[in-house]
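DOMAIN: structural biology
WANTED: fold as tokens
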Amino acid sequence: MAIGQAIAVKEREVIAVEAIEGTDRMIERAGYLCRAGGWTLIKTAKPNQDMRFDVPTVGVATIENLKKNKAGCVVVEAGKTLILDMPETLKLADEYKIAIVGHTG
């Protein structure tokens, strides 16, 4: 059994773990549970994940959802996370002051 590709954390406390609902719904749940905001989304591939069928992905819609739900940062697994429309995604994250961090594990 494996958990989803994402978790939401704040100050070393797990707020939400992605389940069958997917990342967007988990972001909404994290925003509801952490109304003060400033939490971080961590998005990674699962161990032994078949990258042909299920690639961790973030993009403009993710950044919009993070803003709406008061996140302050997103950490992605470098080399395994696809950033859709990267220039626009990075520009929007910068505008909203949402840090994007690539982590190599």
